[in-house]
Amino acid sequence: MKAFSQVIFLVCLINGSLIFAQNNYPQNYFRNPLNIPIQLAANFGAVRSNHFHMGLDMRTNSQENLPVVASADGYVSRIKVERYGFGNAVYVTHPNGYTTVYAHLNKYFDKLDEFVKEKQYKDEKWEQDITFSPNQFPVTKGQLIALSGNTGGSAGPHLHFEIRDTKTEECINPLLFGFNIPDGIAPIISGLYWYDRRFSTYEPGANGIAVKKAGNVYTSNVIQVNSPSISFAIKAVDKANQGFNLGIYDAELFMDGKLIYNFKIDKVHYDDTRYLNGCIDYPKFVRDKMSIQHLSTLPGMKLENYSSGSGGIINLQDNEIHNIEIVLKDVKGNTSRLTTKVQLTTNSGKISSGDKTVSPNEGKTIKTDNAEINLSKNAVYDAVNFNMSEKSDAAAVSNAVVLNNSSIPVHDYYTVKIKPNRKLSNEEKDKMVIELNYGSDKNIIKPKWNGDWAEGQFNRLGTVRLLLDNSLPSVSPSWKDGAIVSSGSLRLKGTTKIGDIESFRAELDGKWLRFARVKDDFVYVFDEKCPKGSGSHTLKVTTTNTAGNTNTQTFSFSR
User: Fold this and answer.
1) Quick one: pLDDT at residue 157?
2) What keywords would UniProt list here (predicted)?
3) What is the pLDDT of residues 179-190, one digit of tens each?
C-alpha cells in the first residue's frame, strides 16, 4: 500500500475551544449525499469482521428509498450489482481527483436504471460490474443519482458512502473533508490490556486491567508485570453525538513522556483492509465479540503508515515505576486520556517455540496422516503454535481435520489437502465438496483433485472435511401454483442441503427473466416483461448447487 498522505492539523484556541482544519483535503467540496442531516451508524476505520469499515454509514431513519444525490459535479464511472458486499452501488468520479461511492441502493436514477436493466437482459445475467466513459452519465452536485436501500451485505436500511483517490483507489476517511457532523463527545475507554511480548499475543493472551473514569481522564492502579517486554491494547469507542459505537480515529501511547506508538486511520486500500485482523486482539473479537485494538505493531501486520513510533513494544530494564499515558482523539479533536503506571516485578522466563510454530514472514507446511495445510509467508500476524489433528466423522467421506482453531486469524488464502477414507469413483469425486466449519458459519467449496487428494483454499481456520452431495437444490414459490398473483413481485426461496445455490436461471414463457438475489431468496419485481392482464405464464427455474447438481422446476401463475 502506498504511504498515507500526512494530514496537517492547524490548531488554534478560540474561546476555550479547539478548532481543527485539515489542509490536505478540500473542505466543503463534497456535500451531504442525503437531503437529511448526517447521522452516523459507523465511521471510517471501525472494526468489522476481517476488515476495516471503509466509509461512513449514514442513517436513513430506518427507511428505504430516500433520495441519494451526487456529492459534487462529475460523472457516473461505474456501477455494481451484487448479492453481498455493496448490493447496488454507484461510483461518481469528480474532476478534483476523487471518486465517491454510494452503496446498498435500491434503484439507480431512471436513465441509468434503464441502461443497467438492458445490459442485464442482453447478458442474461443479474450481477453486473459496468464502467462508463465521462460523457455517458454526467451528474451535477445535488443531482438525484439513486434511492437508498438495504441491498447486499447491509443489515438494515442505510447509505454506505466512501471517498476514494481516483488514481490509487485508496479509501480516504470522509470526515477529513469537512462534513458538518456535530460531535462534542470524547472517545470512551472501557478496558486496558497488556501482553507478554516475549512470545505471541495469542498465547497466553490479554491481561485485563480495571479502568476508572473521572471526566475525560481515566486511570488504573499500578500495573505490575512479570515480563521485561510488554505491549498494551485498548478497548474504546467513539460515540459522537448520536449514540452509535464508532471506531477510534487516533491513538497515542507514551511512556515517561516519550511517544512509543501512534495509529491514525486516514487512508486504507481494499487490498490492505484485511490487515485489521493484525491490529486487534482477534481471539477476543471472535470468542467474546470484544473490539480491542493493539497499541503496538504485530510482526506480520504490514499496513504501512497506519502506525508510527517505535512499534509499541515496551522494554522494561529496571524495577522502577514508569508513567504510561494513552491519548485517544476523534477527527474533531475531542480527546480522552488514560494515565497509569507500570512496574516490572518478577521475570517468569520465556516460553520456547515448538516445531509446529508458524511464524510471521515464514511459510510453513504441516501434515497429518490424511491431510496437509500449506501456509504462505504472509499467513499469520503473530506466532502461532499450530495444532493440527484428525478425528473420525461418520457423516463425512474423510476424517474431520482440525486446523488449529477458528479464533486465530490468517491473512491470505492457504491450501488444504484431504485424502478420502475410501476409494472414490470419478462420479463420486465430481459430487464432492470441502466444508470448512469455523464455528459461527460454514464455507463450502468444490475441490480440485490431485490424484486421490482433494484440494481447496480458505482464508479462515476451523475444521474441514469432505462431504458427498447427491442432493438437488430447489426453490419454493411464494404463490400457489397456477394462482393469480396480485402482489408486485414474485419471490422464490432457495434451499440446498449442502453448500449454496451457485447458479440460478429463470425463464418466463421461454425467455430469460431478471430475478435479483436477495440473501437466499430470488425476487422478480413485475415490469413490462409481465404486465397485469397478460394472462397465464409458465416460469421455468434451473438451479445448480456447489457440488454441481442441477435441478429444473416449472411453476405457473396468472396476471
Assistant:
1) 97
2) Hydrolase
3) 989 899 999 999
Q: Under a CB-based contact definition with an 8 Å cutoff, are residues 464 and 391 in contact? A: no
CA geometry: angle 485, 488, 490, nearest 5 deg: 65
pLDDT in tens, 49-89: 999 999 999 999 999 999 999 999 999 999 999 999 999 99
515: three-class secondary structure by DSSP = coil
Q: How many CB atoms lie within 10 A of CB 416?
A: 23
Q: Can you name the residues that pair with 432 across neighbouring β-strands?
A: 468
DSSP run (H or E) holding 139: strand 138-139
Nearest C-alpha neighbor of 367 from the set 383, 390, 333: 390
CA end-to-end distance (rounded Å), the chain: 55
Q: Exposure of 132 by Cβ count < 10 A (0-12 exposed, 13-18 middle, 19+ buried)? A: middle
Burial class from Cβ neighbours inside 10 Å (0-12, 13-18, 19+) for residue 210 reads exposed
Where do the domains of the chain lie, and which CATH numbers do they carry? 22-177 (2.70.70.10), 188-344 (no CATH), 357-468 (2.60.220.30), 474-558 (2.60.40.1220)
How many CB atoms lie under 10 A from the CB of residue 471? 16
Hey, what amino acid is at 223? I
Nearest to 358 by CA among 339, 379, 372, 328: 379
Q: 10 Å Cβ neighbour count for 10?
A: 9
Q: How far is CA 490 from CA 126, 423, 483, in A?
A: 16, 45, 12
Q: Are 388 and 399 in contact (CB under 8 A)?
A: no
Cα 46 to Cα 330: distance, rounded to the nearest angstrom: 12
Burial readout 539-555 (b: 16 or more C-beta within 10 A, e: otherwise):
bebebbbbbebebebeb
How far is residue 381's CA from residue 378's CA, in Å, rounded to a whole number? 8
Residue ranges in the chain modelled with pLDDT below 50: 1-23
Q: Output the pTM of the full model.
A: 0.92
Report the alpha-carbon distance of residue 225 to residue 348 in Å, rounded.
10
User: Residue 145 corresponds to which cell in the numbers above?
Assistant: 443519482
Phi and psi dihedrals of 74, rounded to 5? 170, -150
**Count of residues for the chain?**
559
* Placement of cell 451535477 in the chain: 140
Give the separation between CA 56 and CA 41, rounded to whole angstroms: 8
At position 121, the amino acid (one-letter code) is Y
- pLDDT given at position 133: 98
